[in-house]
Each structure stands twice: as structure tokens, then as C-alpha cells.
């Protein structure tokens, strides 16, 4: 079996160089604890500050092997773009994996301690001081990362390459998740529609998972952190040069142009 540090070095070096990997650089993690050991090594090697976390659902087909409803990965400060006042550019690795996902972003307004226990969505609402619309930029040096399953995804920063922050939802506490609706366009064509209800249990259930998960890793969720809660319209592959628009009904549009890392 490949050592977690060896895998972390392979992924972080490829990310820094903007270089695609032809295959998984070692033995696939057999379980999520092993995958998160790789992720922790990679966090230690990466020269940036964690500003938040992405959460993604794990498909039922993978549950027999990876017994968890969701997975998580870090979002780093230099990979965050603010699109509240207009379009932004977001880089992905040519020949690697790149995708856009319309998501709802929670901003943490009070420190969430590292308590490894189950949290309810209602318990967590007072810790959130804002909800924004936005996008997760999924990305990896390995084009087939998603195809290899949750262990591979979790090992490479959860397949995250950034986050795009859009406008704030003024009345977020007055609508059910099914009322937070969105459509995604890539190069002008609608390729997905959905709502926050597509996130199992809603965005606050994703937050509840994350708080417990991080606590088991000895990590808290400090004030000012962002949580990207999960895709709402699908995972939409993109390459450098593609332009993505996420249209959030009653809130606004989030737009990004995909560029090449180092380009």
C-alpha cells in the first residue's frame, strides 16, 4: 500500500505545477480514514490557508465500500473568487479534471468547537450568519478522479479547486430548501436545473455532517469559515475557455470563465 505522504506529495506537486496525472499515483485508499490521512498530509504540504470546506454526497453505489453519507475537502484562500460584483476567472489544470457546481454557501458567524458528536440542523442555524449563492470549482490533476470513487476523491482535497462567492440570500431563513432554485448554463446552454433540496437533508444537514467529521479529525470550524454544501444541478465538466453562469432565482447570477492553471 502507498504511504499517505507519498500520495500527498504526488498530488500537491502536480497541482503546483499545473500538470495532469496519467493515473492514480499509487495504491487507491481502501477506506475513507486512509483517504483522509492522505488529505491531512497534503494540507500540511500546501502553502496556503484553509478558508472553508466543501461537502459532497456519496452515491449509494459506493456505500458498501465507503460507509459514509458525505465526504469533505479543504478550500484554500487563494482559490476563492468574489463574483458579487461581476464575472471572475477560475483556473483548472489542462488535461486534469475540471467541473462547476452550483451550490449554496454558508458563512460561519461563531466559532464551532471540535465536538465529535451528532449535531442537528436546528442547533447549527445560530452559528451561520449568512447564506450566499455560488459555485464550487471542482478540480484535480487526475481526470478520472471521480470515476475511482470517494477514497480517491477525498485523498485529493475532495476534488476541490476553489469556490466562487455570489450574492447573499437576504431571506434565507424564511424559505425551505426547495425554494432555493437555480439553473446552470455552460457556454450559454442550460445543462442543469435544481434547488438546495437536492442536497440530502438540505444545506444545514451538510453542515452538521461537516462539524462532526472535522471534530473527529481534531479540527474546529472557526468564525469566518465558508462551507460549500453540495451540488444542486449536477457536476458539469468544463475545460479552459468555458464560461459558466449559475442563475439563482430571486438572488442573482454567478459567472466565471475557466482558465488554465499557470496560463
From TrEMBL:
Enzyme Commission designation? 4.2.1.80
* Name of the protein: 2-keto-4-pentenoate hydratase
InterPro entries recorded for this chain? Fumarylacetoacetase-like_C, Fumarylacetoacetase_C_sf, Hydratase-Decarb/MhpD_sf
Q: Which Gene3D superfamilies match?
A: Fumarylacetoacetase-like, C-terminal domain
Q: Which domain of life is it from?
A: Bacteria
Molecular function, one GO term:
2-oxopent-4-enoate hydratase activity
Taxonomy of the source species: Bacteria, Pseudomonadati, Pseudomonadota, Alphaproteobacteria, Rhodospirillales
Q: Which residues form the Fumarylacetoacetase-like C-terminal domain?
A: 86-255
Species whose genome carries this gene: Inquilinus ginsengisoli
Which keywords appear in this protein's UniProt record, sorted alphabetically? Lyase
Amino acid at each position: 500500500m502507498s504511504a499517505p505522504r507519498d500520495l500527498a506529495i504526488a498530488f500537491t506537486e502536480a497541482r503546483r505545477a499545473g500538470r495532469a496525472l496519467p493515473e492514480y499515483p499509487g495504491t487507491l485508499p481502501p477506506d475513507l480514514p486512509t483517504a483522509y490521512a492522505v488529505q491531512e498530509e497534503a494540507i500540511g504540504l500546501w502553502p496556503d490557508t484553509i478558508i472553508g470546506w466543501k461537502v459532497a454526497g456519496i452515491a449509494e453505489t459506493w456505500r458498501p465500500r465507503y460507509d459514509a453519507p458525505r465526504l469533505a475537502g479543504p478550500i484554500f484562500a487563494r482559490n476563492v473568487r468574489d463574483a458579487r460584483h461581476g464575472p471572475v476567472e477560475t483556473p483548472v489544470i489542462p488535461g486534469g479534471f475540471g467541473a462547476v457546481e452550483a451550490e449554496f454557501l454558508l458563512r460561519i458567524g461563531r466559532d464551532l468547537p471540535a465536538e465529535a458528536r451528532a449535531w442537528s440542523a436546528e442547533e447549527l442555524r445560530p452559528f451561520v450568519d449568512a447564506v450566499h449563492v455560488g459555485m464550487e470549482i471542482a478540480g484535480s490533476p487526475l481526470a478520472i478522479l471521480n470515476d475511482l470513487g470517494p477514497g480517491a476523491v477525498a485523498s485529493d482535497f475532495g476534488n476541490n479547486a476553489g469556490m466562487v462567492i455570489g450574492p447573499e440570500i437576504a431571506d434565507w431563513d424564511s424559505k425551505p430548501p426547495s425554494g432555493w432554485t437555480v439553473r446552470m448554463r455552460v457556454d450559454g446552454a442550460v445543462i442543469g436545473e435544481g434547488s438546495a433540496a437536492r442536497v440530502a437533508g438540505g444545506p444545514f444537514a451538510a453542515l452538521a455532517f461537516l462539524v462532526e467529521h472535522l471534530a473527529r479529525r481534531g479540527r474546529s470550524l472557526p468564525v469566518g469559515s465558508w462551507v460549500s454544501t453540495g451540488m444542486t444541478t449536477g457536476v458539469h465538466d468544463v475545460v479552459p475557455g468555458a464560461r459558466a453562469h449559475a442563475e439563482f432565482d430571486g438572488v442573482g447570477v454567478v459567472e466565471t470563465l475557466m482558465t488554465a492553471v499557470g496560463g
